Amino acid sequence: MNKPKRWSRRLCFLGAVLMLCIGLALPAAADMGPKPSVEVVFRGLEGERYQVTLLSDRTQYGPWSADSAYQDWMGDQAAFEAFASYPAPAGWYFLGEYADCTETGRFFWSYYPPETFYVLVWLPDAGSYLCSSQPVSRYAFDSRFTASVEGNTLTVRPSYDYAGETLGLAVRAALTILLEAGLGWLVFGLRQRAQLALILKVNLVTQLGLNLLLNLSGYLWGPLLTGLVYVLLELGVFLAEGAIYARKLPWEDRKPHPWLYALAANALSFGAGWELAHWLPGVF
């Protein structure tokens, strides 16, 4: 068997293993892991006192139940009673979770939020309610919405930050390319135009692909599984880049071997990305 076929089969096998690991991780539902969340940002209620809840189309969701009675830890009893007495549309229920959003201007339900819901606002000073005109559904692991109030109308729309995510993806890919090219230049003496051109081309493909998959993973599955996917994908990128560099990277002195450069470059970018994720979570 020649070398190209052997490497091709190895990479295909690795890809199958990665997909299997990801697939096996998806059904995991241990309660200790992160849960989907819903965040609603309000526009048009500045200067008003208001409490917010979500009405669910199910009577039970996680620990929340339409049959729950008020308890001291729930907060404002008047708000609980106001939401409990609201004439909700048929088939929709108050589950007992609510919050005063007067100061923050946003409502955040981080533990078992309903899949589909109405946004309901209680205005204690006026003794009145605002309810979204249509129900909406969670669309991502962390779903964000904007609720706009005009008169007596409450309109809720998804507000995922696609522009910010795209910028973060581009910044991560660019920084990785700079780090790996810089390591090659400073440590491994890879300064020829042909060497740098190949490193640039390979990293454009692998890093853009890697970061696209990480963004998709975070969008669908949240941070815990994305961390696992990150490790697996970085391993796949290392093997792919090492195989290409070993075959095609112009390198007069084969010691240290191109595989060592691929390992060092990916270890550097992985460590930098992991560390920066704690400092710049909106970008990394």
Helix/strand layout:
Blueprint: H1 3-25, E1 37-43, E2 51-56, E3 60-61, E4 64-65, H2 77-84, E5 93-100, E6 106-109, E7 116-123, E8 128-131, E9 136-137, E10 142-150, E11 153-158, H3 162-186, H4 193-221, H5 223-248, H6 258-279
Parallel strand pairs: 1-10
Antiparallel strand pairs: 1-6, 2-5, 2-7, 3-4, 7-8, 7-9, 10-11
Helix pairs in contact: 1-5, 3-4, 3-6, 4-5, 5-6
**Which word captures the global form?**
elongated
Kindly report the average pLDDT value: 82
Number of helices: 6
Total strands: 11
Helical content band: 40-55%
The percentage of residues in β strands lies in 15-25%
The biggest sheet, with number of strands, parallel, antiparallel or mixed sense and barrel status, is: 5 strands, antiparallel
Q: How many domains, as an integer? A: 2
Spell out the helices and strands N to C.
Answer: HEEEEHEEEEEEEHHHH
Uncertain segments are: 14-33, 280-284
Distance between the termini: 42 Å
- What structural class do the secondary elements suggest? alpha+beta
Our Rg estimate from Cα atoms comes to: 25 Å
Characterize the structure shown:
The model is unreliable at 14-33 and 280-284 (pLDDT under 50). This protein has two domains: 3-31 and 162-279, no CATH class; 37-158, Sandwich (Immunoglobulin-like). It is elongated, with a radius of gyration of 25 Å. α3 (162-186) packs antiparallel against α4 (193-221) and α3 packs across α6 (258-279). It has 284 residues and is of the alpha+beta class. Helix content is 47%, strand content 20%. It starts with a helix and ends in a 5-residue tail after the last helix. The protein contains six helices and eleven strands.
